[in-house]
Amino acid sequence: MKKSLTTICHRFFTNLANPTRLAAIEQLINQPMSVTELATALGQEQSMISHNIKPLLDCNILTSHREGKKHILTVNLETIAPIFEAIENHALKFCPTGGKCLKGET
């Protein structure tokens, strides 16, 4: 039985609805890096980053490959770039308050 789009969207966007995960994606869009490098760039503990990237790897939002002893993380730009572009476009066209209309934002 095929999963409904609602279920798929919920699971997908739940993975993105985390500030640490979004910050990781934003860093990795600029350049692939290891978990250690990413933790340093974000000013977070390596264990916290590892915990947060696992769902992104499981969902193939991020991929990982080995370079020597390092696991290098890369963003799946085929998926993420159009989503980020759509969000940026929406914010520019339809969010005159600069996102302040979003619930939970201050």
Could you characterize the architecture of this molecule?
- The protein is α+β, with helices and mostly antiparallel strands.
- It has one domain (5-94): Arc Repressor Mutant, subunit A (Orthogonal Bundle).
- 59% of the residues lie in helices and 13% in strands.
- The protein has five helices and three strands.
- It has helices at residues 5-16, 19-30, 35-42, 46-58, 77-94, and strands spanning 33-34, 62-67, 70-75.
- Strands 1-3-2 form a three-stranded antiparallel beta sheet.
- Strand 2 (62-67) and strand 3 (70-75) form a beta hairpin.
- Helix 3 packs across helix 4 (46-58).
- The longest helix has 18 residues, at 77-94.
- It is globular, with a radius of gyration of 15 Å.
CATH superfamily: Winged helix-like DNA-binding domain superfamily/Winged helix DNA-binding domain
Structural class: alpha+beta
Spell out the helices and strands N to C.
Answer: HHEHHEEH
Q: State the end-to-end distance.
A: 42 Å
Strand percent estimate: 5-15%
Helix coverage percent of residues? 55-70%
Q: Roughly how many Å is the radius of gyration?
A: 15 Å
CATH architecture: Orthogonal Bundle
Overall shape: it is globular
Average of pLDDT: 89
Unreliable stretches: none
By CATH reckoning, the class would read Mainly Alpha
Largest sheet: 3 strands, antiparallel
Number of structural domains: 1
Number of helices, where a helix is a run of at least 4 consecutive DSSP H or I residues: 5
Number of strands: 3
CATH topology: the name is Arc Repressor Mutant, subunit A
